[in-house]
Amino acid sequence: MKNGEDELFNLLENTPVHDQNGVSLKAIYEHTDLFWRYSFNEIIKYFKDLIHFQLVKGRLIKSGNLEENWEFLGILY
């Protein structure tokens, strides 16, 4: 994994997720140090890579403002 992917994965490992309710990737991004080091588009790319490598579970959230956002659903071990 790349440095940004590592940082995101480490952060997500410590993010509590309850049942079927996920956590908005945008909310995670805006309330952590990732905000200062990466653009949100970079974080989305890293998140998609983590999904592709089956390290995390996530789903695309559809919103009215056409901005892409994802929901983090948990770590896959």
Structural summary, described in words:
The protein is α+β, with helices and mostly antiparallel strands and 77 residues long. 44% of the residues lie in helices and 19% in strands. The chain has a three-stranded antiparallel sheet with strand order 1-3-2. Strand 2 and strand 3 (69-75) form a beta hairpin. Helix 1 (3-13) packs across helix 4. It is globular, with a radius of gyration of 12 Å. The two termini are 16 Å apart.
Structure described in brief:
The chain is α+β, with helices and mostly antiparallel strands and 77 residues long.
Provide keyphrases for this structure.
three-stranded antiparallel β-sheet; alpha+beta; globular; 77 residues; 19% strand
Write the layout of secondary structure elements.
Layout: H1 3-13, E1 23-24, H2 25-30, H3 34-37, H4 40-52, E2 56-61, E3 69-75
Helix pairs in contact: 1-4
Kindly state the number of beta strands: 3
| Residues in helices, as a percent range | 40-55%
Poorly predicted ranges = none
Instruction: Give me the Rg, rounded.
Output: 12 Å
Distance between the termini: 16 Å
Q: How do the strands of the widest beta sheet line up side by side?
A: 1-3-2
- Gross morphology: globular
N-to-C SSE string, H for helix and E for strand: HEHHHEE
Biggest β-sheet strands, sense, barrel: 3 strands, antiparallel
The oligomeric state of the chains shown is: single chain
- How does the helix and strand content classify structurally? alpha+beta
What is the average per-residue confidence, as pLDDT, rounded to a whole number? 90
> What is the percentage of strand-forming residues?
15-25%
Helices, by number, come to: 4
